[in-house]
Amino acid sequence: MTSSTIGAPPRARGRAAALLGVSLGYFMVLLDMTVLSVAEPDLAASLRTSIAGLQWATTGYTVVFGALLLSGGAVADRYGADRVFRAGVAVFALGSLLSALAPGLGVLVGLRAVLGAAGAACVPASMAVIARLYPDPGERTRAVAAWAAISGAAVAAGPVAGGALVDLAGWRAIFLVNVPIGVLVLALTALSTAPGKAPGVAPGEAPSVAPSVAPGAAAGSPRGERRIDWAAQLAACAVLALLTDALIAAGSRSWAHAAGSAAATALAARGFAALERRSHAPVLNRALLGSGGVRAGLAAGAAVSFTLNGALFVLPLLLQQGRHLSAVASGLAFLPLTLPFAVNPPLTGRIVARVGPRPPILAGLALLAAGGGGLAWAVGAGAGYGWLAVGLLLTGTGVSLVLPALAAAVIAAAPAGTAGAAGGLLNAVRQTGATVGVAVMGACAGLGTVTGTALSLVVAAALCGLAAAWFARRSSPGRSRAGASR
């Protein structure tokens, strides 16, 4: 925190503390998505599980996280963003503590699902809290930039911190680290939900916007009237979970299991579609899915997360089991992949402001395809770490170009009045891509540490190439520049 913040009036210091807390909350959620990667071999040895078990330990989190993000914004609107955020953080911290104590894989997977639900509560609510803390557009822009910088550091810190913790105390330590972070977040955000105060408003000062507050609710956390179709939301969770189960079972060559889960996926999808047609508050915005530009942007987001999360699943197994690196050495080996997340987003933002989101998205997808191909060659040929580092750097740079620009592209292509729904759908699709990436690339890696990992990276590279071709055909340069200038 800067000296100017320390010398600022109580209102500014309170907002700065709340912003730091909200940012650390998102940091914790993102950290949990990457910190587990380098702990996989130790977890597998400790719990005596297979690659399929490791896949479920990872996707148990992303299945629920991705599916519930579809309604995360509606939940924050309905029950109050402040209280939803703080409840999510509290559950996340408690769930992490219990995960560290999990006696077996089944319990761990169940607790990872709880963490996914808590994360889906935190992320949309955090943006709503920032909007209430900083009603001025200029201040809000700077606050969101700080939020993104702090939380984005989790991607870079995850593998390194995870490796150090695993080498020091085993895989259980990676969950314990969330507990003090969660307590700190709750302490920092306590003032933003103090009864009778709107966030960022000093005593006796009128808020710039007077929200309607339900009787008995804190002024800083108003309740809304937005509907939530829980039946349809649970059906969406079931579809993604059954699809993941089918893919993991196929990767384990349990063909009867895979066929049964695939049939159940089809039935669940039909049930979800029927619920959506009758719903007064559908989970999916049909107007969004009618836009070709939105569909192409969603495909690009899914391909990026497929590649990133799939690589974070298969490569640690290669480095530790195939190349016999320690957990901390494996974490450090990922720095060429993760550091661009902390360095490049401001540069990408300036590029988007100048030329629109389309060029960085296409360039990033091309780098992802090249990076995946390069990694596949390096793995298959047994090349030294230098060649792996080049592929990791290309991949990380590609991700850091695509993701900041993708939200602008999807919102620009979305029908008027659906910007919030478009952002929520993009995040949900990205998590779905992450889930499928771990399932598919993990299944490929099960064919052999070297050949299977190389094959998985080829699949990821091809998917990014296809996404680039689709996005190039469906997106319009003129429209993308117009969206960037809004």
From TrEMBL:
Source organism superkingdom: Bacteria
Its GO CC terms are: plasma membrane
Q: Name one GO molecular function term.
A: transmembrane transporter activity
Q: Per UniProt, what is one Pfam family of this protein? A: MFS_1
Q: Where in the cell is it found?
A: Cell membrane
Predominant location category: membrane
Q: How does it sit in the membrane?
A: Multi-pass membrane protein
Q: Which InterPro entries match?
A: MFS, MFS_dom, MFS_trans_sf
The answer, when asked if Transmembrane is one of the entry's keywords, is yes
Q: Which residues cross the membrane?
A: 16-39, 51-72, 84-105, 143-165, 171-191, 296-319, 325-347, 359-379, 385-416, 454-472
* Keywords assigned: Membrane, Transmembrane, Transmembrane helix, Transport
Major facilitator superfamily (MFS) profile domain segment(s): 18-477
Q: Does the keyword Transmembrane apply?
A: yes
Extract the ranges annotated as region (Disordered).
201-220
Q: What is this protein called?
A: MFS transporter
Q: Which organism is it from?
A: Nonomuraea rhodomycinica
Its lineage opens with: Bacteria, Bacillati, Actinomycetota, Actinomycetes, Streptosporangiales
